[in-house]
Amino acid sequence: MTWPRHTDRLVIRPVTPADADELWALQSDPALNRWTTRLYETREEFDADWDRLASVRLVAQWDGKTAALLQVIQQDAWSQAEVRDRAAGQQVELGWIVAPWAAGQGIATELAREGLAIASDMGVHRVEANCFAANTASWKVMEKIGMRREAHTIQESLHRDGQWYDGYGYALLTAEYRRAQREETT
Ligand SMILES: CC(C)(COP(=O)(O)OP(=O)(O)OC[C@H]1O[C@@H](n2cnc3c(N)ncnc32)[C@H](O)[C@@H]1OP(=O)(O)O)[C@@H](O)C(=O)NCCC(=O)NCCS
């Protein structure tokens, strides 16, 4: 993979230690992280998780400022035991956070679309993204980039507020993504 990658407005690259303060600001904001997997409450917790975080986050800059984070987690696809080695690393899970100053301007959609391109370039079989069903902005991003709603789980997700919520699971095969790209250019 060659970095940085460019979209119309964004310059996307892996996280470096110099990004730590900006990541901390984004990932410790309670309102912004209402529906995310983890809200960091102390800088110590955040620092302790830094190596893992930095390995699965890309930074997207817009006009030289950090506008968003893209999570790219490479995972093993589900498989039967006998073919486990062939399913290893065959899936990417995407996630996103947009800084409040950049929200509402299509940045998540632009970044998530590039996330599909990144997953395709990584050579994986399938891309997925998951969210609480109540997180409308997030599942709209998934739909806008052509991902398919494959699961609606009922009160399967426990929120830090103590309530069980519905979840949505979206996915796209990288072969489908590439086919759509070819159709767009012909
Ligand atoms: C979800 C998030 C990334 C969307 O970022 P964004 O750059 O504002 O999204 P976009 O501008 O690309 O908009 C995507 C769609 O969501 C809609 N949308 C944006 N904010 C919304 C909101 N608060 N409520 C409902 N819809 C919203 C947009 O209108 C657009 O849909 P449309 O084209 O049908 O109008 C951003 O709200 C965010 O960072 N949320 C907090 C972190 C989070 O929840 N991440 C996802 C965890 S699964």
Please report the first level of CATH classification, the CATH class.
Alpha Beta
Count of alpha/pi helices: 7
The name of the CATH architecture is: 3-Layer(aba) Sandwich
Outline the low-pLDDT stretches: none
User: Any idea of the CATH topology?
Assistant: Aminopeptidase
Please tell me how large the radius of gyration is: 17 Å
In what range is the share of β-strand residues?
25-35%
Query: Can you write the helix and strand succession as a string?
Result: EEHHHEEHEHEHEEH
**CATH H level, superfamily name:** Gcn5-related N-acetyltransferase (GNAT)
Structure class? alpha+beta
Number of domains: 1
Terminus-to-terminus distance = 26 Å
The helix content is: 25-40%
Mean of pLDDT: 98
The small molecules bound here are:
coenzyme A
User: What is the overall shape?
Assistant: globular
The neighbouring-strand order within the major sheet is 1-2-3-4-5-6-8-7
